[in-house]
Amino acid sequence: MGTASGLLTVVLLVLLSIVGFCHGGVTSSYVRKAEASPDLPKEAFPPPPGFNAPEQVHITQGDSGGQGVIISWVTPLMWHPNFVTYWAAEGNHKNYKLIASAKITSYKYYTYTSGYIHHATIKGLEYDTKYFYEIGIGECARLFHFRTPPKVGPDVPYTFGIIGDLGQTSNSNETLEHYIANPTAQTMLFVGDLSYADDHPNHDNERWDTWGRFIEKSAAYQPWIWTAGNHELDYAPQLKEYTPFKPYMNRYHVPYRSSQSTSPLWYSIKRASAHIIVLSSYSAYGKYTPQYTWLQKELTRVNRAETPWLIVLLHSPWYNSNNYHYMEGESMRVTFESWFVESKVDIVFAGHVHAYERSERISNVRYNITDGLSTPIKDQSAPIYITIGDGGNVEGIADSFTDPQPSYSAFREASFGHAILAIKNRTHAHYTWHRNQDSNAVAADSLWIYNRHYFPVEELSH
Ligand SMILES: *[C@@H]1O[C@H](CO)[C@@H](O)[C@H](O)[C@H]1NC(C)=O
Ligand SMILES: *[C@@H]1O[C@H](CO)[C@@H](O)[C@H](O)[C@H]1NC(C)=O
Ligand SMILES: *[C@@H]1O[C@H](CO)[C@@H](O)[C@H](O)[C@H]1NC(C)=O
Ligand SMILES: [Fe+2]
């Protein structure tokens, strides 16, 4: 009797563990139309009125801790205006006007010549303060505003938006409009693949200009934190264009030197209670490479007492159960995954796959060519991997998931949308994913995420 009930318990336990993990998560039954929408015509993104008016205005963080901003814009015909006037809208220095001048770059790509691309770095701003900024003077002057983040600290609430693989179609516009109408997010974490100019003949770089005009309605008012994707490579020997990332690196500057990086393609920032590390899936990352040695050092600089939340942005996902781009992130996973587990990274956001997917906390760090152990296992020190390449670009939706859904996949759906990560304090962050077809109040996927350093408790998934 005792033996029989003991056996039954063992059988039950085995069954429970199978039910508990071997089944995959949820594949959403929501089905959207599959066909891709084309890029909107160039005329849908007109330049602002006026001779040589500044256009494609966008901002990003300009220093390590959030008191700096890089303001970027393009003037099409002349290098003027090459300065920005800025002033606080509140606080002790209210309305006290200052001027920052810009560095100007321009580049040629095949038969295209860019306008004058300006980057003005402003430092020493007050924390948590609204600023106005005006580019130029007179008839063509353009006025914008942004708010600096609160001082870096462990319990500072802050809300990030996340979008990837945006492009410039009507779906892209729906995603961005939906994001803007979701008023809570203060900074965009953009996980790569910006304009999709390279999908046009000769990588038509006017599509980089139209994209800059398209995103201005958000990117001029809140910082977008940039990650490079494969569509930023623009490597085209057939056009005698041999310099990878040339348009991207001329147009989108990032504060990489503030994090001791030697390349704008990988860097980090601290913002409110988050330490955000940006990696490049398309730059060398093997042992001894600059990216490898930088990341190794960078992880030792993370101070969870100051920034409890450790977030990584990269383009090509490590855990992806879509047939599109299956296992493309694998070699980078093999290189860095054990570091992410040791460092207790909270969340990794990736793009590339044009669908949405959220993983369980899992790791696969046992791989050893002789021990045969290479399956993902549940691991409460591992990050949650979120693929959010569902911005709505010209290439359409990735609607072919592997079947059955693997155990590491908690939720997946082939729809376009954006996500919001609302950090509340050092232990709790509320995460939601919003598909374009729903009103903003609806979250198609949501989760309370618990900090891995301060509260490493298993989350209640779906
Ligand atoms: C994007 O959508 C908004 C809101 O529907 C619309 O007003 C705007 O014209 C659209 N933009 C483009 C470029 O189609
Ligand atoms: C790999 O696995 C084998 C067999 O379990 C073990 O003997 C060996 O020490 C492992 N090697 C490493 C580098 O962990
Ligand atoms: C952190 O935020 C969560 C969610 O808002 C809340 O339940 C919890 O009490 C907060 N913790 C502290 C210490 O305030
Ligand atoms: Fe991509």
What keyword list fits this structure?
462 residues; alpha+beta; globular; eight-stranded mixed beta sheet; 6 helices; 17% helix; six-stranded mixed beta sheet; 26% strand; binds fe (ii) ion; 26 strands; Purple Acid Phosphatase, chain A, domain 2; binds 2-acetamido-2-deoxy-beta-D-glucopyranose; disordered N terminus
CATH class of the domain at 153-192 and 265-461: Alpha Beta
Derived from helix and strand composition plus strand pairing, the structural class reads alpha+beta
Mean pLDDT: 93
User: How many whole angstroms does the radius of gyration measure?
Assistant: 23 Å
Low-confidence region ranges: 1-22
Instruction: Tell me which CATH architecture of the domain at 153-192 and 265-461 applies here.
Output: 4-Layer Sandwich
Please bin the fraction of helical residues. 10-25%
The strand line-up of the biggest sheet is: 1-23-19-22-18-17-16-15
* Structure ligands: 2-acetamido-2-deoxy-beta-D-glucopyranose, fe (ii) ion
Query: Sheet bearing the most strands, described?
Result: 8 strands, mixed
Please state roughly what percent of the residues sit in beta strands, choosing from under 5%, 5-15%, 15-25%, 25-35%, 35-45% or over 45%. 25-35%
At the fourth level of CATH, the homologous superfamily of the domain at 153-192 and 265-461 is Metallo-dependent phosphatases
Globally, the shape reads: globular
Output the number of helix runs.
Answer: 6
- The total beta strand count reads 26
Distance between the termini: 39 Å
CATH topology of the domain at 153-192 and 265-461, which one?
A: Purple Acid Phosphatase, chain A, domain 2
